[in-house]
Amino acid sequence: MGILETIKDPLDVKRLEAGQLPALAEEIRDVLVSTVAKTAGHLGPNLGVVELTIALHRVFDSPRDPILFDTGHQSYVHKLLTGRAERFGTLRQEGGLSGYPSRAESEHDFIENSHASTVLSYADGLAKAFVLGGETDRTVVALIGDGALTGGMAWEALNNIAGRKDLPLIIVVNDNGRSYSPTIGGLASHLSSLRMTQGYEHVLELVKNNLGRVPVVGTPLYDTLHGMKKGLKDILTPQAMFEDLGLKYVGPIDGHDEGAVEAALRRARGFRGPVIVHVLTRKGNGYAHAENHDEDCFHSPQPFDVETGEERPRPHSWTNVFGDEMVKIGAERTDVVAITAAMLHPTGLAAFAEAYPDRTYDVGIAEQHALTSAAGLAFGGLHPVVAVYATFLNRAFDQLLMDVALHRQPVTVVLDRAGVTGDDGPSHNGMWDLSLLQVVPGLSVAAPRDGARLRELLAEAVRIEDGPTVVRFPKGALPADVDAVGKLGEMDVLRAGDADVLLVAVGPMAEICLEAATLLDAQGISATVVDPRWVKPLDKALVLAASAHRLVAVVEDNGRVGGVGDAVARLLRDADVDVPVRTYGVPQRFLDHAKRAKILSDVGLTGQDLARQITEAVARRSQVMESHPARLVHPTD
Ligand SMILES: Cc1ncc(C[n+]2csc(CCOP(=O)(O)OP(=O)(O)O)c2C)c(N)n1
Ligand SMILES: CC(=O)[C@@H](O)[C@H](O)COP(=O)(O)O
Ligand SMILES: [Mg+2]
Known about the structure:
Binding site for thiamine diphosphate: 73, 114-116, 147-148, 176, 287, 367
CATH topology of the largest domain: Rossmann fold
Enzyme class: transferase
Distance between the termini: 77 Å
CATH class of the largest domain: Alpha Beta
Pathway: Metabolic intermediate biosynthesis; 1-deoxy-D-xylulose 5-phosphate biosynthesis; 1-deoxy-D-xylulose 5-phosphate from D-glyceraldehyde 3-phosphate and pyruvate: step 1/1
CATH superfamily of the largest domain: Thiamin diphosphate (ThDP)-binding fold, Pyr/PP domains
Low-confidence stretches: 214-236
Number of helices: 25
Oligomer: single chain
Keywords: Isoprene biosynthesis, Magnesium, Metal-binding, Thiamine biosynthesis, Thiamine pyrophosphate, Transferase
Strand content: 5-15%
Largest sheet: 7 strands, mixed
Number of domains: 3
Shape: globular
Bound molecules: thiamine diphosphate, 1-deoxy-D-xylulose-5-phosphate, magnesium ion
Radius of gyration: 27 Å
Subunit structure: Homodimer.
């Protein structure tokens, strides 16, 4: 029997002899590689925290000592050591283990939100609660990556934490020098200076062998290092950065030396007040195909062949079309610049960056900064394109509203992964943007239905110079192009029907709307299908079109509340057009992880379900009209 299968609880990890830990680490790596090869997921980040997580559970008493993960994508090892090894094969599958911490799964899990740079704020609050409750024998442990440390919230929290010498808090900085790609910014270069310095191996050895003597407070640590080894005098240890914040610092520690990490954590635990333990790890450690993967160290690979490391080919995606079109636009428009928040490849901007490196800005995991910096770039006469995942725009809403839109700046925000994403759980779905964006004055929003429209609408968006624009599209494979059969104002008519139902298809929902229209025909219900292309502001031609139909059905891959459907209803109400509007969208609740297609089917966003629901709505409408004919005068055609 292997060691891992004997681990049912962190206590079992504590009971192991030190000599058993390398074997445990090897078993864990084998399980990580073999499982993620089938399920996909965050292999690189988790291979980098095997020894670190073992040490955490040997030193602290989870859940009494809460272990909090920033972003949460690197918590697979934590799950394996907290009684979920048997279920690990269900990772990221519907009904199986989440790819992030899950409170429903375990008392050892706390933070479910996958949005980065939040952990120190949770930890600040939780540690304060322990102090207030007199629970001074409990320690909060917060694990944050070097990438997540580039997010502003992390520094807001550090500013608060540094002011409290009594907080029972240990911050473990998991420094692998990478976000997806190499981490950027002044902080990163400071942290990475350590790696580049010749003697850093010596520093690791030195700190490890003298941890008992090396005081943790900044200055003495620095002097000690100086005193011990003249040759290391120019070692740049980042303790200065944290020391300036008044935080105790232990490190840097070799994050793959379990004994050294354990010793450092025990030492840190012995101190009152917040302590930083700086751990150097390698993303993908222990699996050569991940270690040597040049793009992102297998940050989040597709299913792959374990022997060759060959990933399942990714389908031609919306992101590919966006990336290609940006290179073309970049050639024609030298004022167009691009901004990414630490996701150059995942958002498709890598080709633009290669072609126009001076016009590409990676701001780190800092979406708020990205938007306001974009406003500054626009002040300077440029037209920035900010590419982020739809769900991450949520945290930069005020910057879009007050820094970009208030000044009517020509910034184009491209929202990839808009709508249901699925595998990454509730906090990754892009199901809020169409609701949030409705309230931004002067902002225009486009929702392409296919690749051809994405190219068209992106080109239109970057030509709009009197205010911000948004172009949003979903994750994954592109649908086939659907050509219009006519126009209604600026809207594309995809299918001309009679006066029964006007189907307003938002973006990629066009496909299921056309399917539904065909099925409705069989029910004797004739549907006209239109694609607005620009869903904000809505085309006034919609008023006339709606008034000629018995029912308007708006279909959107967004939460049902406050999205395009509600905007259409408001438009018709304001125009005194008394035609009922039905919105078919994503229920306004947090959706458990599952495949995108499965979730869309579960929430009724399929052609069949639409046809059934619209048939029922038309029947209800007929009953109302028959029972109260006087109430509703239906305009003649
Ligand atoms: C607000 C936000 N923006 C972007 C992301 C996408 N994202 C997921 S993991 C990751 C990199 C995190 O880097 P780091 O904290 O260093 O962890 P590592 O993967 O290196 O272990 C990013 C950018 C996110 N989760 N949250
Ligand atoms: C953890 C995180 O935010 C991303 O790595 C997320 O997994 C995005 O995955 P995709 O890029 O596959 O949509
Ligand atoms: Mg990192």
